[in-house]
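haha ok so turns out i had the wrong file open the whole time. this is the CORRECT one, sorry everyone. sequence first:
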Amino acid sequence: MKTSKRGRRIERQQKLLKKPALNLVSLMDIFTILVFFLLVNSSNTQQLPSNKDLTLPTSIADKAPKETVVIAITREDILVQGQRVARLSELLNHQQDTIEALKKELDYQSSLGYIADIDESAGRAVTIMGDENVPYETLRKILKTCQQANYRKIAFAANQQAKPKS
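then structure:
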């Protein structure tokens, strides 16, 4: 049966006025992919801060680093949590066994209290990221200062080297 021009026009207008249904299958696919992506990329590996002026020694240790206060010793500076505390050039002429600015900053970091799990007898934990060419005398001063600030669980950061195949 043929319809008139007016009837066809009314049918076209009714089709245009109908709202298209929301396609939930596509949305569910997108969210499923997003959930899998987030699950895969949310691993609990600890990433130490990187620094261009710092060349870490290599190691084959298996133990992963924990969340601690990080002391970075570059070729020019000593940094605590990314903040410069002292210059290495000033420390070479310094005759004291401790570094007062470093001790002050470590005391401040311990007062923040964001790092729990402190055993008063063992002390707090600290990670030292030292350039492989740092003088031993400087490292000794830093270790002595950490000890005086009750940071006795000291870990040294290193680049992990693959184990040789047997």
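Residues 24-41 form the longest helix (18 residues).
again sry for the mixup
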